[in-house]
Specification:
heterodimer; A: alpha+beta; 6 strands; 35% helix; 28% strand; globular; B: alpha+beta; 5-stranded antiparallel sheet
Amino acid sequence: MRWRTTAMVAAVVMAAPLWALDDIHTLPSLDKLAQRAKESVDVTLDASMLQLASGFLSADDPDEMRVKKLVAKLKGIYVRSLEFDREGEYGASDVEGVRALVRAPGWTRIVGVKSLKGENSEVYVKKEGSQVGGIVVIDTEPKELTIVAIDGPIDPEELSELGGHLGIPKLGRGKTKAEKGSSKGDQ
Amino acid sequence: MRRLVAGLMLFTALPLASWGSEFDWLVREFARETGIEPVHIPLFGLVRFTVAVVEPAGTSELNLAVFEHARLDPERFRKMADQAAGYAWKPMIRVRSEGGETTNIYAQTQGQRLRLLIAVLDKQDATFVQVRIKPQELMRFVDRQKWKSQH
């Protein structure tokens, strides 16, 4: 009898972190790491806040109207961005909590970019049936760490539209050859 | 049993009654810790009354306290703001920049209205603001001003 109780308690204890981490709301705090950072940004917008905050987007601006429509479907946006003075101020273990979140069942890595300069970007999506139920972007550079978590149905392609709004950094630093050519032409 | 419930209710309500609003608590606590009094803003009482009655640009509540030449460790400032906000306010935005400037914004939703508690610590000054706004009305006002300036 005792071993059964012990086994049940052990199972619950072991399952609890997975259960909790399955939810984007539990995006781990980077407060301790933030104390070592030169600059830090922490944005937390849950569903109710998001709906009201989207009221700050202008109805006269077509771009902002598109973002407003997009945001209406979402349940939360969470941004953690840190910039350090020197390289090596943070390590893989500091991001482990976030990685544990995206290792939970249902999450898939769709983008993984590594550069020789140590600039790495990863995009994870959470599948809910045929839809995407959430996105986590982990962007690590030698002196910078940015984590963006979006809870709710969103197409990864729509991510770039959210960039620059509601605390989300502009995404998609790289330009295609065609874009580079056209921007040269514009100048 | 009723006495117990009434006693419990009184016990839980007491801290709220003695603290006043979170804004007031934060201002008092900052003044106590830094030993500096907030700057007197002439006729601000009248401004607050007007805001409450007229609700300009969807703003129906305004509290403001400015401290000049006030220095406090940014981390201590953040903890103080967190303590004031408690569970009643949700931390929405925290920004700390290179020069030690810190901005903490907490929010509460009340139907179509959004209450914001903003605590900003500059190198030498600190500003505390509490507003209750209707974001869509505020943006309509901003859009109207933009339109007027363009035409």
